[in-house]
Amino acid sequence: MASISTLPIPARFPDPFTTDPHVPERLIGERRSYRTVWVSDIHLGTRGCNAAMLIDFFDHVDCETLYLVGDIIDGWRLKKRHFWPPEHNDVVWRVLKRAKRGTRVVYVPGNHDEMVKPFDGFDFGGVEIRREAIHETADGRKLLVVHGDEFDAVMLAHRWLAFVGDAAYTALMKCNVLVNALRSKLGLPYWSLSMVAKHKVKNAVQFIGRYEEVVAHAARSRGVDGVVCGHIHSAEMRPIDGVDYYNDGDWVEGCTALVEHHDGTMEILHWAEEVAVRALPAQLALPARAA
Ligand SMILES: [Mn+2]
């Protein structure tokens, strides 16, 4: 059986790992190249995580900068019970390998991987840990990169948000951290208003719209041109009151990533659909070429 360990490793890519991936890294001839890729809400360590789809994504896509926008490893769930199949290791393997090969990897922790937050400013194996980041696009826009859990508490006050000052707004964000620190001590799961509302509230669409407005408001007050977040597992890109709102979605249900092309154009990739199209016969997938 051919194993990846039998393949010669080019000298410029010294293998820093003692184990090979469970799913061997596929050598795809034409990998797609982007300036920047954002992924979040992978939730490694849970059954919901679609690791196979993400492994496929990493084997087809290259980028100069990779942002991991939080909830990458689900520490909250792992605390309760251990679940770590080999595919989840393979995702970590691919990210670290990428960093070694020269991709800039920035990890902005979220609420489910908040145990990473104290390492703000550290650099682990080429992965920069940052509580938040500012990304400058090829066309010169400044984007704030945050996971987005800090807006959960703000959502409760959304209706009168317009009447309160930014101090109250910031206080509400801190309130969310305190509530969940307490819940963690009590052994309770993370409480996310956004996720509860998305799954239980009938008008989830309206709720998501409000969340997006809250995030855009925060970005505007920070003086940036746009914001990239995750957290609500709902990929989106649209201008909101003069701010570019981007959400890279998740790898539990949606399997989406946000990418920046080399000219600064942004796009949401729906990977499950790309995989489905790839499985189709060529004449069905690409009618123009078949003609
Ligand atoms: Mn989250």
What would a concise description of this structure say?
With 291 residues, this protein is α/β, with parallel strands linked by helices.
Describe the structure in your own words.
- With 291 residues, the protein is an alpha/beta fold.
- 34% of the residues lie in helices and 20% in strands.
- The protein contains ten helices and twelve strands.
- The chain has helices spanning 51-60, 75-80, 86-100, 152-156, 166-185, 193-200, 204-221, 271-279, 282-285, 287-290; strands spanning 32-39, 61-68, 104-107, 123-124, 127-129, 133-136, 142-145, 226-229, 236-240, 243-247, 256-260, 266-270.
- The strands form two sheets. It has a seven-stranded mixed sheet.
- Bound molecules: manganese (II) ion (MN).
Uncertain residue segments: 1-16
CATH superfamily: Metallo-dependent phosphatases
| Helix/strand structural class | alpha/beta
The tally of helices reads 10
Order of helices and strands: EHEHHEEEEEHHHHEEEEEHHH
What is the CATH class name? Alpha Beta
Mean pLDDT: 83
| Number of distinct beta strands | 12
Percent helix, as a range, is: 25-40%
Described by strand count, sense and barrel closure, the largest sheet is: 7 strands, mixed
How far apart, in Å, are the first and last alpha carbons?
40 Å
Morphology: globular
CATH architecture annotation: 4-Layer Sandwich
> Under CATH, the topology is which?
Purple Acid Phosphatase, chain A, domain 2
Bound molecules: manganese (II) ion
Percent of residues in beta strands? 15-25%
Radius of gyration: 20 Å
Strand numbers in spatial order across the main sheet: 4-5-3-2-1-11-12
Number of domains: 1
